[in-house]
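ARCHIVE CARD
CATEGORY: sequence design from structure
SOURCE FIELD: tokenized fold
FIELD CONTENT:
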């Protein structure tokens, strides 16, 4: 299993599979995307790629999102907590027990920064006539 160490981290591999999924239709790269698809494939460990290809060959998508950190978005079966935790730590790739797809967690959404009040622009407004200011 040492050969895995030369490959990108597991979460990267899933990202690559996701990219591949968008490039390929039924396992065939879209026209003009063959080179990119081949480059992506070269980065994926062969056993992972082989399983991915088997899924695709069966007309499935190879990768499925975990919804709410709890269920497979493809087959809606609940995903064991330890699987979710493994993915959170990028420790390993995980397969859905039900549909066999590679599971991935959505990118952590950055905590929304409170929208700061935009500083008023210094474009000079139409000045009020001086006469009016004096009356205030
Ligand atoms: Zn599933």
């Amino acid at each position: 299993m040492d050969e895995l160490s030369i490959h990108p981290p597991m979460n990267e591999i899933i990202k690559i599979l996701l990219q591949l999924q968008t490039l390929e239709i039924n396992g065939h790269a879209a026209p003009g995307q063959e080179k990119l698809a081949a480059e992506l494939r070269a980065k994926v460990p062969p056993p992972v790629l082989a399983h991915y290809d088997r899924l695709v060959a069966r007309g499935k998508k190879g990768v499925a999102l975990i919804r709410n950190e709890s269920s497979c978005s493809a087959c809606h079966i609940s995903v064991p907590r330890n699987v979710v935790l493994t993915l959170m730590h990028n420790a390993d790739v995980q397969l859905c027990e039900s549909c066999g797809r590679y599971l991935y967690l959505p990118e952590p959404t950055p905590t929304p920064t409170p929208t700061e009040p935009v500083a008023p622009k210094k474009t000079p407004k139409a000045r009020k006539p001086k006469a009016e200011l004096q009356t205030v």
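CARD ANNOTATION: The radius of gyration is 25 Å. The beta strands are 24-25, 28-29, 63-67, 71-72, 102-104.
SHELF: design records, drawer C
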